[in-house]
Structure to design on (123 residues):
């Protein structure tokens, strides 16, 4: 299962609206021992990368039993992360400093969904 975006996926993501802010829904499924690895990644990310790119973790929590979902759609953790722009997200994942910690995230997860969201017009 995929846990990291590909270059092609990133290019399409950025080209949709490069300068628009985005809130990324993260649905995470951990490997054995993955919570500890993800915690290391998260701490390093919040300390070094988030301030550099203006990233804000809006919400982070454990997933519970779904009320409505298909089989296999239960997630271990859910995060909402705000990025100042799609371009900032792309620059962030290409940053050598980010590349030094992303292996922790990759090893921590067996599956992930990164779903960009944008506010509804009336919100």
């Amino acid at each position: 299962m995929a846990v990291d975006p590909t270059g092609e996926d990133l290019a399409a993501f950025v080209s949709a609206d490069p300068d628009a802010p985005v809130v990324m829904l993260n649905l995470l499924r951990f490997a054995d021992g993955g919570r500890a690895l993800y915690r290391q990644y998260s701490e390093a990310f919040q300390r070094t990368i988030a301030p550099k790119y203006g990233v804000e973790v809006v919400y982070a929590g454990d997933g519970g039993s779904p009320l409505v979902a298909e089989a296999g759609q239960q997630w271990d953790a859910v995060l909402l992360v705000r990025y100042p722009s799609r371009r900032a997200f792309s620059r962030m994942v290409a940053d050598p400093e980010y590349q030094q910690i992303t292996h922790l995230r990759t090893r921590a997860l067996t599956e992930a969904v990164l779903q960009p969201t944008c506010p509804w017009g009336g919100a």
Q: What stands out?
A: The chain has one domain: 7-65+74-117. The mean pLDDT is 92. The chain is about 40% helix and 25% strand. The first strand starts at residue 22 and ends at 30.
